Amino acid sequence: MRAQTLNRATPYMFMAPAAIIMAIALLYPLGYMIYGSFRDWNPSQSIGESEFVGLKNYITLFFDPAFRESLSVTLTFAFAVVVAEMVIGVGLALLLDRNIRGMSVLRTLFILPMMIAPVVVGLMWRYMYHPTVGTFNTTLKSWGFDGIDWLGQNALLSVIIADVWQWTPFIFILALAALQSLPRSALEAARIDGATAWQQIIHIKLPLMMPVLIVTGLLRLIDAFKVLEVILVMTEGGPGLSTEIVALRISRTATEFRELGVAAAMSNYLLMLLLLLTVAMFAITRLQEARAQRAARQIQED
Amino acid sequence: MQYERQNPAFYALLAALIFMSVGPILLMFVNSFKLDVDIIGGRTGLLFLPTIRNYETALCDVLWYEPDHLDFCSLKFGGAFINSLIIALASTVITLVIGCMAAYALVRFRFMGRDTISLSTLMVRMVPPAVLLVPVFGLWNNEFCIDKATMVGGWIRDTFGGRGDVCLAGTHSGIILVYVAMNLPFVIWILQSFIVQVPRSLEEAARVDGAGPFQVFFKIVLPLIKPGLAAAAIFTFRIAWNEYLLASALSDRNTKTVPILIVNNMSEFNVEWGVIMATGMLLAIPPIIFTLFASRQIITGMTAGAVKG
């Protein structure tokens, strides 16, 4: 009898620490934030003292050109980064999917950039982009070209390049893993039928990799909305608002403008956007699973 | 295993790729051994007299001798490094232990609320740190406090340091708590995919032999999912070690981590490139070492985390 109660309690005992910590430090703060977003709240008061203002924060933000600007910067950044990384990463994976000596060394070197702190990545690139002493401009000048105003006029592009440098290897490695787990028989059959390398890629490899690629791309997209430190260190959001992504704006609204309510509402907008993306990712995964099952059943029936 | 021979252009491409991915890191490494005069002088070549002066400046508060070129030790890098180490290690260990148990429960037991928990774990994976900034700042400073009058408050203040009335903000444990919560969803997710592969018959055999659920977990399951644990540990450590935003909101003068120190020094008008690069290099070294020794686990973890995501 005692053993049975113990057995029934076991899963809850295993779950409890994780559930408690996540409730205290993740779910409760999220609820607190939603509550706070309806209030006129500054850091010197506790939330109870602040005044309830209804949807005012959300409405102000919606019509705030600066917030819209930073939202569009965020979207541009996220989509540009993901498209560039997908194209380069998958391209490299297709190119490097060969049986060569030292592939594991290569992969190790490629994942170095994404293991390093974003703060440090920002620091390296800020040095390389430096208008007078930076690597790019000194190189350009020694070749007789004019220097480029990297973090000035082309700030957003420069930031995108830095992120592409850091995260393309992620796509590359996942795409390579997907490629190497493709069914050999399909590729063999295509080769025997005389398909060229290009035809193999377009008609066989890419369609078969697609499920993994979609999920990878969406994961990367969600992560692209989390980028903050690299941009903070490189440009601090400037010049003007040209690289001020929403995450940066939240932190500035909270610490510089001291409007916690508005910052909370902003966080909520960002959260809703990400929620939408996550749900899309789930839906796509489920759809793919269902399709795969149906295909498997059909094969069995045939 | 037979290796194919490739044409020279292929190797040229490989070399270019390696140069592109490692180049910036090497550049930082080389520059951290240069004097500011040499860095700003624009001589990009490798011809310079290497000096460890930048590292001496950075580490001045933990060096056993006083560097000649320094009058005053302004950069407290050593202290920040120790803070970073404490926070990253503690949050990694706690996350792993707790995450492991939760993942096991989710995979092996059917119980009430299992699907809800599983789904919400997945959903909170997408929450960016910036979203947590406002509520965590508010809560850790105002609500999660213990009055200094109580016994526990005094004990916590003496043990971990902090202000008069003890709040979570400004303590190591405050930052650790956020990191654990932030990393748990990912760790649970990644470990689930490893625990599923442990054959159930093994556990049943142990249970027949009279092992309790906790014994089965610690003696049978844990040793079998070591690769998964390694991957999860590296990812958690990496986030806790590298994170800036939440740490900067929650730490005070004594609990600053290295990323905060670097950002603070970067935003000064006159950037001392040499010293900054030395601090950056010191921050980058632990992850680089992990990568070189455990790249296989990292790649396994990445694929497990993404492909099944």
Automatic annotation (TrEMBL), chain B:
Domain ABC transmembrane type-1, by residue range, is 81-294
Pfam families from the UniProt entry: BPD_transp_1
Which superkingdom does the taxonomy of this entry point to?
Bacteria
Annotated membrane-spanning segments are 9-30, 80-107, 119-140, 176-196, 216-241, 273-294
Where found, per UniProt? Cell membrane
What kind of membrane protein is this, topologically? Multi-pass membrane protein
**Carries keyword Transmembrane?**
yes
Record flagged with keyword Iron: no
Alphabetically sorted, this entry's keywords are: Cell membrane, Membrane, Transmembrane, Transmembrane helix, Transport
> Which PANTHER family does the protein's record reference?
INNER MEMBRANE ABC TRANSPORTER PERMEASE PROTEIN YCJP, MALTOSE TRANSPORT SYSTEM PERMEASE-RELATED
What family is reported? Belongs to the binding-protein-dependent transport system permease family.
Query: What name appears for this protein in its UniProt entry?
Result: Carbohydrate ABC transporter membrane protein 2, CUT1 family
